[in-house]
Design a protein that fits this description.
single chain; 168 residues; alpha+beta; Nucleotide Exchange Factor Grpe, Chain A, domain 2; 6 strands; 20% strand; elongated
Length: 168
């Protein structure tokens, strides 16, 4: 006789007879605890993903604003050299300062360009002979930035190479 035939005739399966109400409750409780743990992990994972998406979005927006930062710096440099209207220069410096403060509050930080060049943080655009140790940063061509530890633009730098010795 098959299991289906036993159920039709009113004879329960052997498995059902072995499980009592206490066993079923324990099994259901275990399943509910497992489901609650999975849901808690899901909430943590989605919260982390939302935070990560926010950081990426912020970094992309700030990256798009970097040309404006560069133009501000060039304008200030040009006005300093031209010795033009000091009040206008003061106003532009104030705008630049406020703009940079806002970006810094949102996680922007400038990459340090002191000492030796680091290929993960600096892009070498030129190598010049120098008395400095090889690989030492001589000049910053374009500042590099990161947002909350994420690189958004490498610093463009000029680095030193050994001076060639005169041939005798």
């Amino acid at each position: 006789m098959t299991d289906d035939e036993k159920m039709i005739e009113g004879e329960p399966k052997e498995e059902v007879l072995q499980e009592g109400p206490a066993d079923m409750q324990a099994e259901m409780k275990e399943k509910m605890l497992r489901l609650a743990a999975e849901f808690d992990n899901y909430k943590k994972r989605t919260r982390k993903e939302v935070e990560e998406a926010g950081i990426i979005g912020k970094a992309n927006l700030i990256k798009d604003m970097l040309p404006v930062v560069d133009e501000f710096e060039l304008a200030i440099l040009a006005m300093d050299k031209a010795a033009g209207d000091k009040e206008m220069l003061k106003g532009i410096k104030m705008l630049y300062s406020n703009f940079m403060d806002t970006l810094k509050r949102n996680g922007l930080s400038e990459i340090s360009c002191e000492g030796r060049s680091d290929p993960f943080r600096h892009e070498t655009v030129m190598v010049m002979p120098s008395k400095e140790k090889e690989g030492t940063i001589l000049e910053v061509v374009k500042k590099g930035y990161e947002v909350n530890g994420r690189m958004i633009r490498h610093a463009s730098v000029i680095v030193a190479k050994p001076e060639e010795q005169e041939k005798k």
